[in-house]
Write a structure and sequence with these properties.
994 residues; alpha+beta; six-stranded mixed sheet; 26 helices; 68% helix
Length: 994
Amino acid sequence: MRLHRLDITAFGPFGGTQRVDFGELSAAGLFLLHGPTGAGKTSVLDAVCYALYGSVPGARQGGSLRSDHAEAGTRTEVTLELTVAGRRLELTRQPPWERAKKRGAGTTLDKAQSWLREYDASAGTWKDLSRSHQEIGEEITQLLGMSREQFCQVVLLPQGDFARFLRADAEARGKLLGRLFDTHRFAEVEKRLADRRRAAEAEVRDGDTELLADAHRMQQAAGDAMELPGLAPGEPGLAEAIMGAAAVARCTARELLTIAHCARSAAESAQGVADRALADVREVARLQGRFAEARERAGRLEERADAHREDRARMERARKAEAVAPALELREAVESEHRRAADAETRTRALLPGGFADAGAGGLAAAARRTAEELGGLESARRAEQRLGRLVAERADLDRQERADEDVLHDAETWLGEWETTRAGLQTRIESAQEAATRAEQLAVQREPAQNRLRAARQRDTFARDTDEAQTRVLASRERATEARAHWLDLKEQRLNGIAAELAAGLSDGEPCAVCGATEHPAPARKIAGHVDRDAEERALAAYQRADERRTEDERRLGLVREALAAATAEAGDTPTGQLTEQYEELERSYDVARRGASGLHAAHEELRRAEQEHQRRSAARQEAALRAASRAARRDTLDGERVSLEKELAQARGDAESVAARAAQLERQTALLTDAGEAARAAEDTAQRLKDADARLADAAYRAGFETPRAAADALLDDAAHRELQRRLDAWQSEEAAVRAALAEPDTVAAAQQSPADLARAEQAASDAARRLRQAASARDAAASRCTELDRLSARSATAVRRLAPLRAAHDRVARLATLTAGTSADNERRMRLESYVLAARLEQVAAAATARLRRMSSGRYTLVHSDDRAGRGRSGLGLHVVDAWTGRERDTATLSGGETFFASLALALGLADVVTDEAGGVRLDTLFIDEGFGSLDDQTLDEVLDVLDSLRERDRSVGIVSHVPDLRRRIHAQLEVVKERSGSVVRQRGGE
C-alpha cells in the first residue's frame, strides 16, 4: 500500500482545504511530520484512517470530525488517493453534516457519503466503482487484509502503546495481540468446548435424574423391599447401584406373587363349597314358597267362582244372539239408506219451480223430457251464434293485418329512401380498407430489415461493453504476467547469486569440486536466510507461464469480441441504438394502424352484401303488402253481409235471454233439476218398501233364536271388544285353575313343604364371607402381579436409560478432558496455558524474532528480544517477553530497560509486529508507515542508529513518516510536512527532500 495524495476539508483543526502530497514526501524515503502541540499532526493520520475505514482510531472516536473553524456552507470531506494491490484508487468520505435549511428556518441533517473510484490507465480517466459504505468498507478490508485496529497498529505505529506493551503483564499483552491477530476464534473454541462440557454434564445429570426418578418409582412399587443408594445425579456408580437394588426388588416381588397365588386358590375352593350350599338352600326355599303361593291362588279362585258362572251364562246368550245379527245389520242398513233417499228428495224438490212441487215421479220425468226437446231445438241457433263470433274475430284480424301492413309500408319507404346514402358510405369504407391493406403490405416489407438493424445495434452496444471489460482483463493479465516474469527473473538472479551455496551443499571431503576441481573445501559457501533454491525458481517460472497463458487467452477473447463488434457495427452502422429503437417503434405503430385499418375490409364487404339483401327484402315486402291490402277489401265486404243475416236469426232464437247460449244454459239447468227430482222420488219409494220387508224378516229371526223381541236379541249381542274381554276372563280362570292343581300335585314341592323352613340368610352370609375372602386374596394376587409388572417395566426402562446414557457419559468424559486441556486447568497441561494463549505465544515468538533483527542493529548488537513460556508466579505461562543483554549475557525483563532503550525496543517491536501482521494479512505490501513520537529520549548515537534502521526500510521501497517534536530531526530529515496553527484553523506546509 502506497499513499499518493490526501485532501482535507473542514476536518479536525483544518478550517479550509489542505492537500498533502505523499508522493513527493515518499520519494525521499524518510519524511518528518512536525508542528506545535495541538496543531493537528495526529489529525492528518486520523484523516488517512477515516478515508480508508470511515472512522478514526479508537482512542479518538466519539467526537465531532467537523472543524470549528469551517465556514457554515463548507462540508467536511476527506479524499485519499493510494495504490494497493496494483490498483490505483481514490476514496472520498463525507461524515454526516447538520446544515441550515435552504428554505425556512432551522437545520437539516445530510447523511454521510462515500465514493470509491479507480484510475483506468489505458483510458486516462477515473472510473466509479461504488457509493455504498458497506461495499467500500468490504473492498478496502479485503485489499489491505487488515481491520481498522490492525491498520492503526501496523501502519500508524503508536510508540507509547508498544512501550506499555513491553512493560505489560501477560493478560494485557494477550488482549493487544488478540486484537491484532484476530485469535478470538480460538477463544470461541475454548468457550464452545466449555459449553459442550456443561451441556454434556447437564445431559448426564438429567439422565441420572430420570434414572433416579424411576428408582423412586420402583421403591414406591416395591414398598419396603428396595433401598435406594445414597448417591446424587452425576456421581459415578449411581446407575450400577440402582440396577442392583432393582434386581433384589424384582426377586422379592416374585416370591410374594407365588404366595398370593396359593392363597387365592384356597379361597376359590372355599367359595365353591359355600356357593353350592347356598344354591341348595335357595332351591328348598323356592319350592316351599311355590307351595304356599299355590294354596293362596286356590283360595282366590274359590272366592271368584260365582262371577265365573255369570260370565259363562252371558257368553251363552251372546252366541244365540249371533244368529239374529245378520237380520239386525240388514234392517239398520236399509233404514239408513231410506233416510238418505228421503233427504235427497226433499233437497231436489226445494230447487224446482212452484208448479212442480206436488208432482210425482212420473210427472217429473215427463216435464224433463219436454225441456230436453226444447233444448235440442236451439242447436241450430247455437251454431249460428258461434259462426257470428268467428266472423267478428276474422273481421278484427283483417283490421290488425291492415295496420301491420301500413307499418311495413312506412318502414320500407323510409329505409329505401336512405339506400343510396348507405351504399355510398359502405363503398367508401371498402376503398379505405383496401388502401390500408396496401400500406400494411408495404410496411411489412420494411419491418424485418429495421428489426435486424436494431438487434445488430443492441449487439454492438453489448460487444462494446464486453470489449471494454475484455481490454481491462487483458491489461490486468498483462500486468500480472509482467509481475510474475519480474518475480521469476528476480528469483533466478537470487539463485544465481547464491548458486555457490547450492553447489557447496553437494561437496564431500575428498571429492573434487564441480567448479574448481579441488578435493579440499576449507570454507564452503553457506546458504543465507531467504536462499532461493531450484524448486522456488521452478514454481515462479510455472506461475509466470500460467500468467502468460492467461494473458494470451484474454488477448484471444479480446480479438473475438472486437471481431463481433466490427460485424455488428457493419450491420447497424453508427446510428445510436435509441434512435433506431424510436424508428423501429414508429414503423411498428404505423404498421399496426395500417393493419387495423385493413382488418375492416372483409367486414365492410359483408356489411354491403347484407345491406343489398336487406334492400331486396324490403322492396319485396312493400309489393306483398300492397297485394294483401287489395285482397282484404273484398273479404271485408263478404263478411259484413253474412254478419247481418246471422244477427237477424239469433235475435229471434234468444228470446228474452242475452244470448242463445244463455237460453240453452237455462234449459239445461231446468232439465237437470227435473231429472234429479224424479230419480230422488223413485229412490225414496223403493227404500220405503225395502224397510218394511227388513222389519218382517228381523221379527221372524228373533223368535226362532228364543228372544221375545228383536230388541232383546240386540241387547244380548256383544261387540268385538266385549266378546274378547269376556273370553279372556274365562280362559284365564281355566288356566289358573289348571296351574294351581298342577303345583299342588308336584312331588318335589309337596316334599319341600313337609320340611322345616329354609334358613336363607345364614347361607347367604356364609357365601358372602367366602366371596369376600376370595376378593381379598385376588386383590393381593393382582397387587403382587402389578408390582412385578411395574418393577419389570421400570427396570427395563432404567436399563434402556443406562444404555442410552453410556455414550453420553463417554462423550462427556471426552469433552471434559478437551475443555480442561484448552482452558489450562487440566493436569496434562503442565504450563497451564489456554488455547488462545498458546496461539498468541507462537505469534509473540514470531514478533520477537522479527523485532530482534532491527533491535540488534539499533542497540549495536547488545539487545535481543526473546519469548518466554515461564509462568509468572501462580498465573499462567505463555506470553512472557524478555530481553537478552549481550554485554552481561543475562536475560532480564523488558520492564528494566531505560527510557531510550524502551523507545528503540518498542520501535523494533512495532516494526516486527508490522511485518508479522502483514504476512498474516496475506502478504499485502505496506509501502508507507508512520511512527509517532519517542525520539526525544535517544542520545545522538542511538538516534543515528535508529534513523539508519528506518532509512534501511527504503531498501524495501518503503517510505516512513516520523511524527516528532525533536528539533534535531528537522536538521537530519529534509522531507518535511509542517502543520501550522492559525486563527482561521491549521494549515500544512510541505517541503520535499533535496
